[in-house]
Write a structure and sequence with these properties.
Blueprint lengths: L1 H6 L12 H20 L10 H21 L7 H16 L14 H22 L1 H6 L9 H41 L4 H31 L4
Helix pairs in contact: 2-4, 3-8, 4-8, 5-7, 5-8, 7-8
């Protein structure tokens, strides 16, 4: 399929047209699509199944977090929060399967998620406050402080996607390497312990990424700007 798509733009076919992390992302996207396609026709008010119960718990958790961080309008942004959470979570967890690797251990994948979060919170901030009022908060509370505050605010905002990228990439890369080393040392005698640690880190990092995104959105849409 990779060669077919690249052939449309005149690129010569290659034995491996896609890097592993690209294939893993496409696989994760396909898994999520199939999972929700299975879930949708099975939704029931009277007899909810186990899959529905699982996602209802996930929805309640995400909704509660959005309400706590963003406020009563948090539900407006829940679709993006849920998308970024589940995508990163599945990308993290797929590395547990033998023969697969977590795409989030490649810097460009966390960077892509971080850039998406960056443009999203700035976009909803402009939408909520208007571009003039949103940009005005970069100048600080007093016009006299504007020459000092504007560079500080710009550096602070530009550092956010870098921070999100490094945090997710470093933790997943380190977790993948540590898990691999200990499994080789123990010769698969006690791999479940390290697999469990990998799963814990996968959930934690997906949650932290989503939580920070919520905080950025909360700051952007706050009407005090």
């Amino acid at each position: 399929m990779g060669n077919t798509l690249s052939g449309l733009v005149g690129v010569a076919p290659e034995p491996r047209p896609w890097a592993n992390f690209v294939a893993m992302q496409l696989l994760v996207a396909a898994i999520i699509i199939v999972l929700f396609a299975i879930l949708k026709p099975r939704l029931s008010m009277d007899r909810p199944g186990k899959l529905q119960h699982t996602f209802e718990l996930a929805y309640d958790f995400l909704h509660e977090q959005a309400s706590e961080q963003v406020g009563h309008d948090g539900h407006k942004y829940l679709a993006f929060f849920g998308t970024i959470f589940f995508f990163i979570l599945f990308c993290n967890l797929i590395g547990v399967i033998p023969g697969f690797e977590s795409p989030t251990m490649i810097p460009s994948v966390p960077a892509g998620c971080a850039v998406a979060a960056f443009f999203y919170y700035n976009g909803v901030g402009i939408q909520a406050n208007g571009i003039g009022k949103y940009l005005a908060h970069f100048a600080g509370p007093m016009p006299l402080l504007a020459p000092l505050m504007i560079p500080i605010e710009l550096v602070s905002h530009l550092a956010r996607p870098l921070s999100l990228t490094i945090r997710l990439f470093a933790n997943m890369f380190a977790g993948e390497q540590v898990t691999g080393v200990f499994i080789r040392l123990t010769l698969l005698v006690v791999p479940s312990v390290f697999m469990g640690l990998h799963v814990f880190v996968a959930f934690l990092q997906a949650y932290i990424f989503m939580l920070l995104t919520m905080m950025y959105v909360a700051g952007a849409v706050a009407h005090e700007h």
